[in-house]
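Homework help thread (please don't just give me the answer)

Our assignment gives two proteins as sequence + structure token strings and asks us to describe the second one. The first is just a warm-up. Here they are:
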Amino acid sequence: MSNQITVKLVRSLIGTQKSHRDTVRGLGLRKLNSVSTLEDTPAVRGMIRKVQYLVQVL
């Protein structure tokens, strides 16, 4: 498992901007506390940075 990032949704999407909800969905996260493992690419890192207040990198 080289170059993998695990991301967990730790805050609710209620009241957030639509673009942020779409970004979280693009990361493969749906419900609260859902976890997704993704390739470590600049695009994924940018998505995580955009919604850093909603997610936690494990």
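The one we have to describe:
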Amino acid sequence: MEKISCQVSQIEFLTDVVSKVTLTPSSPLNFKAGQYLHVIMGEKDKRPFSIANAPREDGTIELHIGAEPGNEYAGQVLAKMRDEKVVDIEGGLGDAYLNEVPSHPVILLAGGTGFSYTWAILQELLAEHTDTKVYLYWGTRQFKDMYAHDELLALERQHINFTFLPVIEAANPEWQGRSGIVHQAVLDDFVDLKHYQVFVAGRFDMAKTVKADFLAHGLKEENLFGDAYAFI
């Protein structure tokens, strides 16, 4: 796979531990919404990150990198980007991408920074100006972790076919929305998932549980997409 050198055009904090990185590649990266890339740290050290945007005319690439204290895997990548202002990447990778505008309603399900995967797919779906119903369930531990909350509410107002459902795991008393485990919120809302497509991103244990529970609620396995399923 071709290695592409990228300028690190911008790094900005989305939360205390999540950074948005904008890369400008020296040559176009061919990818589809929902794919990921490798940041090449060494010959045998390639670290995957979801591409947090659909393809853009200017060719820039957006990553959402969560690097909480102790997470050297992501922290070292961010440090390299800040210090060297350039990184090598390869992509697009993964088979859990949006191949075409679905005929079925779509449920996007994200845990934490898995949102970046669903964010790319959502952008592509809304740009297509179809009537396909799209539901985005995003679960974070605390409200402060939900860095795109207001932007998603604005999109919900702009697109009648889009519904945003935030779910906070450890909600404080002031939170008036949904709380608990994000995939359970989907099960509470949909009795039968037979006529839906689901795109999921989060921890592997979450993806495994989602698969078992959603298939039990009628979801067809061919309509379940997520990079985790290539490894578990």
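TA reply:
I won't write it for you, but here's a hint about the kind of observation we're looking for: The mean pLDDT is 95.
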